[in-house]
Amino acid sequence: MTMFISTISLLTLLSALYGTPSAHPHTSSSHSYNQPYRTAYHFQPPKNWINGPLRFGGLYHLFYQYNPKGAVWGNIVWAHSVSKDLVNWTPLEPAIFQSQPSDINGCWSGSATLLPGNKPAILYTGINELNQQVQNLAKPKNLSDPFLREWVKSPKNPKMAPTNANKINSSSFRDPTTAWLGQDGHWRVLVGSKRGTRGMALLYRSKDFVDWDQAKHPLHSIQGSGMWECPDFFPVLKNGQMGVDTSVNGDHVRHVLKASLDDQKHDYYIIGSYNAAKDKFIPDKGFDDFIIRYDFGKYYASKTFFDDGKKRRVLLGWVNESSSVADDIKKGWSGIHTIPRAIWLHKSGKQLVQWPVEEIEKLRAKPVNLPPQDLKGGNLLQINGVTATQADVEISFEVSELRKAEILKYWIDPQILCSTKGSSLRSGLGPFGLLVFASEGLQEFTSVFFRIFRYKHRYLVFLCSDQSRSSLNKNNDLTTYGTFVDVDPLKEKLSLRTLIDHSVVESFGGEGRACITARVYPTLAINDKAQLYAFNNGTSDVNITRLSAWSMKKAQIN
């Protein structure tokens, strides 16, 4: 990967909720909310460049890669914000910055682990004086401080380093995971790496979380996948939506191995089992390669953590800009985080389900509920009464005339299909969905929609997010995204939830079985000039069985 994105997210929790600390004086008042693209309820710092979160255990602690000197990559420190609810955040002083030979050229990504006695520890990647990637250890200076303001690095850093003996590529050795404790009492941690084009998760073991030994074999590797950044490894229950601690193993769980693939700049995951005796990950049938992505839009460097307070696993991801670097510098900031998502294994066992954490619903205001109705082909339905640039919309469709589905003669990449069959191209069943950030006269709009095809005697549902007409500023990235949604339109309604926040469109299809995040920067459909519609541009009618929308209040993100 390029060093530009090697900084992942890391997140941590503490075990009791405390009062609000005073904000870091250098970060609380340096931006203007007059900016039309600045988000209102997605996490982002007041200015400059970020990419990635970390997690700690009981207040929510968000550690993230941050450039205090500008809206471009460089000068990276570990900034630190805290929250009681994953929605409202207060910034603190940076937690980790360059100060040792082992990180003098950069403090990159890592993860936090809770040790016995509720003692947090961070393993993170540093760039040493030889520009090698090495892994370092830091612990809180004062465990009685609930905000963990100060961190002390081990004087014996680095704890893991490339040598001639281990043949590790010193420029491809980064992003240690949250560690897990084996039944033998030894800690395990993964570090992303590659050999040639074979991507891998190197495995290290430790008795005391201080001295680490590399295992003979990686936990898992895949030829041709390239560098694995920001690996993540965690168990999920076979049945149910509850989360479990990272160290849990047994017949009642499956394991998820995730990697941010540097060559593709996307986050992929595999479902399988963990053989603790051999320290090997065994993919389930059909998961021999990275096939499934967390999010089929703009989404990278994600990290999960186990929220022991609410017994759930939470996923956070970084979303970079689709605007030009010149525009990023002009607006003074770059990069946001998605809304935290609860994540669990679908009942089919074949994929994960993601859904915005319930706390975000506290921001909902001024509900609008439209009655069930038919939406005729070629028609628009304006959704009035909500703030169109700052909204949460849930809509469900029912399709009766499935015989009119377009025939798909051969399998095609969903993103290519969505790009060639955008919202303006009509078919029997679709496109139908939402038009967001729509200007008067529809010179600008972003469409999020379904299409239904008939393929080899079954129906296929595709979810697309079409940014091709999102802005008259053609310097933006206007890529269209798409994915297959594993729903059966014969048996299920087609549901779509979309979070709209000034320059981000975060969509969840099929009750969280497919996710697409997009960044858009309209020139006309901004502030009170933006409009919101349900639409059907297919030739057949569809039935809206539910349409609920809310304006979203602004979160406290100092």
From TrEMBL:
Gene Ontology MF term list: beta-fructofuranosidase activity
Pathway: Glycan biosynthesis; sucrose metabolism
A GO cellular component entry from the record: vacuolar lumen
Domain Glycosyl hydrolase family 32 N-terminal: 42-356
Signal peptide: 1-23
Bilayer topology annotation: Single-pass type II membrane protein
Localization per record: Membrane; Vacuole lumen
Keyword list, A-Z: Glycosidase, Hydrolase, Membrane, Signal, Signal-anchor, Transmembrane, Transmembrane helix, Vacuole
Catalytic function, reaction form: Hydrolysis of terminal non-reducing beta-D-fructofuranoside residues in beta-D-fructofuranosides
Domain (Glycosyl hydrolase family 32 C-terminal) ranges: 359-551
SMART domains: Glyco_32
Record has 4Fe-4S as a keyword: no
Keyword Cell membrane on entry: no
Stored Pfam families: Glyco_hydro_32C, Glyco_hydro_32N
GO biological process: carbohydrate metabolic process
Family named by the database record: Belongs to the glycosyl hydrolase 32 family.
Protein name: Acid beta-fructofuranosidase
Organism: Phaseolus coccineus
Lineage: Eukaryota, Viridiplantae, Streptophyta, Embryophyta, Tracheophyta
